[in-house]
């Protein structure tokens, strides 16, 4: 019964629809002849029972009163001689409706509480109250020995969830507080999964979830729920902290597999995902030690976004062909109330190393698309690019959300650009690469950022869903600002143009670099020498002054076509 109750309560919309359908379909039976109206009114117990099971005591009574109105003498008046009897009959039926609705609501609540109590007892040593680290294996063995079969419904599913920042949590919060966080995390995991799921601590930093039957969510759905849990912070006094989770899942029939095999397979999946994350973190990301101070700073990201401490600024890029600012790069800046300006080099890598990066990137998309829509309404058609983290590309849903967001704001798809580091784009595979191709085909612009030419073979550029490369000026130049290997870079730029790609020189900070990259034939220049990042409300004014910037002495001798005046 607890499974039915939890299923109904976990899906209130579906449950309400069932109650309404049952009410109206059964009420329709009352339109038959009066002789059988009384017996048929018993069918109205169905919506009453459903309401009690799904929503508890109060809604069980409410549904009972609604059903009693459906059979009231006001709607079906009796003959004068038996009118009093009909009212008595109605009162009795109303009483029974209310009794049944109330009792079912109470029983449903008790069943839910009892299931919760049983679940809380699972995975806990009754003698000490501490986690039973061997409980998951015992539970799997019981499931495997209880029944045999080879249908999907008989499969046993094991999911292991590792808290990768467990040691940092202990350092920051202390052992007692960390145990409180782990207890709350266990409850969140249990609430997100079917009622009969077994959740226990297999190690200090590892949860094991065991479930079986057709109610078990798919691996994709389960990982999505766990990601939502990982993105939600835990509040400790005046501090918010995040748990960083990595999960792996293994399934097998009740016959022909052992508990050790399932646990080992799930653990291998966790290890593989950790390895994938480590590879992603090593591509285009600066690793920051998530020590106590940084972990505390990470916990403040969500609040900082809500309070407006983190804002988006926009760095213009100058098109040398048109002498206009038509491209902007969206960058984040954090003005902390006590720390002051937090350098992006400190908080961006920290965010990228945690699952909060998905929440942060979604916020960036929403902010940027809303601002692009505002500028477009003023007659300024601008393309704004957003940097994607390696972890963003592992998110199964983030890229799918971009087209609906643009459509909702009425923004053309070619007004949004995505930038992916050269180190990362070579690791794109399967669904990630296909999704990037779909976005490119829809008109969303894609660029290879931090390009130096030693990671992506030039011939491979032809197969990638990109239309721009952004040369990393700082890495390509020596201390004097001159190119380290000008001949090679000329070949790179020429081939990029042959492939129909735009070339942006990103990070131009002095006139020596300016002349070097103009001579290469770059199409666009970006950097502090051209324009510093601007607040959103200053962008349109700067656009109008782009011609004046291009007329500065340092641009003398540069042809309108972007060349070196040859």
UniProtKB/TrEMBL annotation:
CDD domains: EAL. The keyword Nucleotidyltransferase does not apply. The chain crosses the membrane at residues 12-32, 44-71, 91-111. Residues 154-290 form the GGDEF domain. The keyword Transmembrane helix applies. It holds the Pfam family EAL. One of its GO terms (molecular function) is cyclic-guanylate-specific phosphodiesterase activity. Keywords: Membrane, Transmembrane, Transmembrane helix. Residues 294-547 form the EAL domain. This is EAL domain-containing protein. It comes from Thioalkalivibrio denitrificans. The lineage of its organism: Bacteria, Pseudomonadati, Pseudomonadota, Gammaproteobacteria, Chromatiales.
